[in-house]
Amino acid sequence: MAQVSEEREDRVDATGAHPAAAPGTPEPGDAGTPATPEFPGTAGASATSETPHAAGTPVVPETPGTGEAARLSAAGTAAAETPAASRTDEAGGASAETAAASAKGAAAETSAAAETGASDTPAPPEAVKKASKAGRNLPAAIGVALLLGAAIIVSLLTVRYLFIGIIAVAIAVGTFEFAGVLRRVAGIRVAVIPVIVGGQAMIWLAWPFGREGALTAFVLTVLACLLWRLPGGAKGYLRDISASTFAAAYLPLFAAFAAMLVPPADGVGRVLTFLIGVVASDTGGYIAGVLGGRHPMAPAISPKKTWEGFAGSVIGGVVAGALTLSLLLDGHVWQGVIFGVAIVLTATLGDLVESLIKRDLGVKDMGTLLPGHGGIMDRLDSLLPSAVVSWLLLSAFVPV
Fold first, then answer.
1. Where is the signal peptide (predicted)?
2. How far is Cα 88 from Cα 83, in angstroms, rounded to an integer?
C-alpha cells in the first residue's frame, strides 16, 4: 500500500491532480480501511499514510497552507502571477515604445520647424549671388581685354615696331610671374636674371636677324643659366636648370616668333591675322562652352573645357582665318581654313598645357595682375604656341 501511495503522490506532484485509483486498490473510506482525513488540494494524507504510526496515536490533520500543500499553493500562486507580470512587462514595453515614438515624432517636428525657419530666413547676399558660369569676373575680363586690344591696335596702326615692345614687356612680366609661382609652391629656383635678360635678347634680335638671332640668344641664355646656378650647390641643380630652360623656351623663344611677324611690309596684316585667329578661337570656344558645354574634353586637366566649346573654337577660328588671310594678306580661302584649324589646335594645346602646369603646381592662376584673367601668363597660354605656327604657315602661304 505504501508503494501505491508513493506512485499516486508522484502523479500528484507531476500533474497537480489526483489520478484515479488503480483497480483493486482500496480507496480511503472503504470498508475495513481507516480513512485518513484529507483536505481538498493537499497531498498530506498520502504522505501521512506512508509513515507507520503506533497504535492509538492519533493522526494530526494538516491544515491548508502547510507542508506539501503550502508548496503546491506557492507554485500555483507563482504560475498565476507569471502571466500578470508578463502582461505588466509587455505593457511597460508598449509604454516605452509609445514614449520613444512620441519623442521621435517631437524631434522630427522640431527638425522640420528648424528647417522651415532656416528656409524662411533670408540668405546673405554672398549666398544668393551666384557665381558666373564662366568662372571669372566677366565685366572685368572684358574691360581688360578691350584695353589690351586697344593698345595693340594703336601700336600696329602707328609705329608697328611698338608691338615688339609690348611683347617684350609682357614676356618679362610673365617670366617673373612664372618664376615666382615655381619658387613659392614647389621650391624650384629659376635663374630669373639670365632668363629675363636672355629673353629680351631673343625678342629684340628676332627683329633684325630673324630666327637665327632668336635661336642664338636662346642658346646663350641656357649657358648663362647653367653658370648662374653653380654657386647654389648640387641639391636641386638639375631640377632648377630644367625649369630655367623650360621658362626660356616657353616664354621668350615662342614670343620671338610673334616678333618676327612684324618686320615684313605686310607685317601689320600678319600680326592681325595671328591675333584675330587666336581671339576668334578663344571667343568661339568660350561662347559655345558656356551656352551648350556638356561633354568634357579633358576632365583630368581642364574640367571646364568641353567638346562643344572646341567645336565653337573651330567655327570661330576657321571663319576668322578664311577672312583675314584672304582680305589682309591676299591669300586663298582654303589657306585661311587650314590656318584657322591649325590656330585652333595650337591655342587649345596651349590652354591644356598651362592648365596642366597649374594643376601640377596646385594653383588657380599664375598671378593677379589682370582682373578677371589672372596673370599675364594666364593670357599668354594660347598665344605663345600659336605664334610659332602662325609664323610657319604665313611664311609658307604668303612668302615675303
1. none
2. 8
